[in-house]
Amino acid sequence: MGRNNEITPPGSLQERFVSFIWYGVIMAGWLGLISFLDEAFHTVKKFNYEAIPKRKGEVVVLTGGTRGIGFDILKNLLQMDYHVIMGVRKIEAGLAAVETIRKSGVKSGTTQCLPLDLKSLTSVRKFGETILKEKDRVDILLNNAGIMFEPYELTEDGFESHFQVNYLSHFLLTQILLPKLKSTGAKKSTCCRIVNVSSVAHTASAIRNVKELASPKWGFRNMYSGFRAYYDSKLCQVLSTKYLDARLKLEGTNVHVYAVHPGVIPTGLYSSIGIFGQIMHWLAKFYRNSDEGAEIVMYAAISPEIESEGGLYMQNSEKRAPNKIAEDHTIQKTLWELSETCV
Q1: By the number of CB atoms within 10 A of the CB, which of 43, 112, 145, 179 ranks highest?
Q2: 258 lies in which domain range?
Q3: Could you confirm whether 230 is annotated as catalytic?
């Protein structure tokens, strides 16, 4: 499907205003409060990267990595001597991020920057197929990149941007790389891992008819909310995490899947919500920084404490109960089958 230039979101101005108040003020405010209280009583488990056995020769695929949590994840991975393949929109931004890390004193690890536009399924396929062609192993897939609270936009494939960038493109990438993860896991004593960087915001989603997610008009009373779109995309990540891990268990493969909330991290993702983004940056001192968020993601990616159990939704480096909808096998299966038809 060609790019749709429609910029007017579904729903009347009055409907969108009501939607903004509910999802963008009330729900977002509630999520911010409970996250603040949760983080206040939990310290971040930090790794001593000097003491951890190096992973030279092992390969990590990371979407993003040029800023925010992704940048700190990249730094941590290099400290462990991984070879990191970065999927980035702008190669120069990826190279600049690596150079900054090198200047900070990290000399271990190797990197490769490949172009990846998550708003294009064609780009995702090319990225994944390049990795399959060039690498004989993939040990970890970190689906990190994403967008948040963006204005209404349809991708070149005809999908709402949050749905595609945060979920559908990563679904496709996972499907492409899964055979390589399986074959790598078969040769290791430790499991290969797929980590979906989700959010506690998935608990604010009430989506049950997942088929409407693929609709350009978004389905829900024909009304769009960037906040709701973000919440729903994060629920999709948790749903697919649960479903895929269960399938892999039945197959007996040595691959586990995790969804992780890194904390409320005031990063560049908030830049699209104007004054509310400025408020989030002012509140940054009360929340976690990107380094702490990266440590939480790293826990899901490398910690031996969860080696034997996949399919987890995690907050503060511990197992948490997700949105009840995420545990519904029927909804999991419906989303999975929908996603297969979309890609």
Answers
A1: 145
A2: 13-342
A3: yes
